[in-house]
Amino acid sequence: MVSSWLCLSLSDTWIPQDVHSPTENYLLWMWNNRLYVYSAAALLLGFCFLLQIKHTKDSGSKDSGPKVQKAAKNKISSDEDADVHVSGVKIFYGSQTGTAKGFASELSQEVQTLGIPAEVIDMKDYDPDDRLADECVSKSVCVFLVATYTDGRPTQNAEWFCKWLEEASTDFRYGNSFLKGLRYAVFGLGDSVYVGHYNTVGTNVDKWLWMLSARRVLSRGEGDGNVVRSRHGSVQADFRAWRVRFLSRLRALAGGEKKSCSGNCKSGASCKNRKKHGAQEEEEEEHGSEVELIESSSEEEESGWRDEKTSRSVVDMEDLGNIMNSVRKAKLILCSAVVSGIFAHQHVLPPSGYKLIGSHSGVKLCRWTKSMLRGRGGCYKHTFYGIESHRCMETTPSLACANKCVFCWRHHTNPVGTEWRWKMDPAEKILQDSLEKHQNMIRQFRGVPGVKPERYEEGLAAKHCALSLVGEPIMYPEINTFLRLLHSHRISSFLVTNAQFPQEIRNLVPVTQLYVSVDASTKDSLKKIDRPLFKDFWPRFLDCLRALGEKKQRTVYRLTLVKAWNVEELQAYAELIALGQPDFIEVKGVTYCGESSASSLTMANVPWHQEVVAFVQQLADMLPHYQIACEHEHSNCLLIAHNKFKVNGEWWTWIDYDRFQDLVQAHEDSGGQQSFSALDYTAKTPSWALFGSNEQGFDPADTRFQRRNKTKDISGC
Predict the structure, then answer these.
(1) pLDDT tens digit string along 335-389?
(2) What pTM value is reported for the model?
(3) Domain residues for 605?
(4) Is there a domain that residue 19 lies in?
(5) Are residues 515 and 378 both part of a single domain?
(6) What total of structural domains would you count in the chain?
(7) 401 — phi, psi (to 5°)?
(8) How many Å apart are CA 603 and CA 590, to the nearest integer?
(9) 3 state SS of 429
């Protein structure tokens, strides 16, 4: 109101300036310059606000200074950790005279001068099954300095390591990518005077690691003890030359560099590393032989390894003409051996751990034998029937088979046939060689980390024989002689047949336990899964089940479930069980054995343990005289037993092996007149083996071992 009145009065009447008081004059000036006053006030407030913010920041920074510095340090430390490309170098040596051990010590000192931790490891003190897979993620580089000993064998301290590596490289349970991520280099020590065995151990270690998808950071080096042919004049000079190259490569890896291209790209395209490689070559030429690499891992060599890694060819006696038309497949079988009647595949079975015997037999160390030697549990037969897995010999007197089953974990590398047509070895020779080779394989576990001394000593004397290695044991014409010899050594017999030889089943002498593989319950599904060679396979199959029912000793149906192929045939299975009236029915999920040109089986066909349990429960409900007795979860296997083995509410599925040997001896002494039945040699089943127990069939006396691997464990028995 005052402002309005002043405006009106000023506009209507002139008033001399001295008429107003000083206060009025001040107010009037303020009003006329109000725009400037407002701007100045705004600037002042803004300036004050900025000062306040700055003061707050300064005080806050003083309080949080140590925290900020700590965070900064943590960030720097984290960045440094992220930039660590080589956490250390582990140098493994296999040495007999100490040369490789000395080289390992020298290399360790050189590596440490680079500021990289190094560890020297004696191969005999290292358990590859437990620890080698850990190296895939530890950012370490593994160096293998291995000498070749007599006849191309590893040195004593490297025997177990090399044996494990060889078996793992061909064992489908590990898989081709088991060591993916492991970085390695190999230097072999040998003597070219021994032409046939020169540096075979170094070559093999390199090959086996490569087959398990480990990554070679430097080509294999070879030291030659023959000074005449040594590349640098001595094995020591050969090693020094290789060591220079390795240390150079290690520096590059530690700096985060990947292996430079050799300039010979397979695609033939231009290479961005070609200039760099050319400069590197010039530098190497300046240094002369000091940095010359002993190249041994060629593309041709890897190509051969690749063929070995992927080759899964079917070799059938009926298809011999087709085999001979293929040069590569012809290499898998010895033509001269076929002519002389020997069909054992010298180039196929041995890499998988088989030991061939004579012309038609074989023996192999079961993985459960190895497991129980180390106190890591036994197979399902230990849970169901009480065998001692570390004392079990897995063998066969006939590598040939009359079926080509889709789930054969030998990938049909054994011949097949419908009748015996080969030179026959005597049963005494087969048993003697089997026991000797089995014992030699057990001896290789002496001193291996984790092996229990008492079980090692027990394992040297076989107490059980599983005639289920490969092929059809019952085809061997002297099978009864072989069984009698086993029993005379007080070795129990577990004989498996594929249900195609009914008359041979009827002619069998007493067996500790006789199995028949019932892989399908209808004619069509059996043809699809077992792929039998006999045209009258179905009548033969049914007659074998009837022959089994005539036996007085323990009999077993072995069912292998293949999802989407035979798990829907419950009623048909029940009818087959009624036909043969077996004492026991083992039901097991199929084990996936890896890719094979011989089979279309995939992981999709492998049932989960819960699915196997559900199948068994449904099947047991359809069988009036049977119940579920035992379970071995680790093998994905369950046991259905006849009610006669349940006495006073307790299961007696285990076997009294000493009692069986006494009974079978009395049977032989009486000329077959004194008979006995399955109930005469039973033993009580422990609670941990029963279906529904917390242990799920794992013996609490042992320790469960889970393999540290990136892939799913699909192993069975």
Answers:
(1) 334 334 444 444 444 445 668 888 888 898 888 999 999 999 999 999 999 999 9
(2) 0.65
(3) 355-689
(4) no
(5) yes
(6) 2
(7) -140, 155
(8) 10
(9) helix
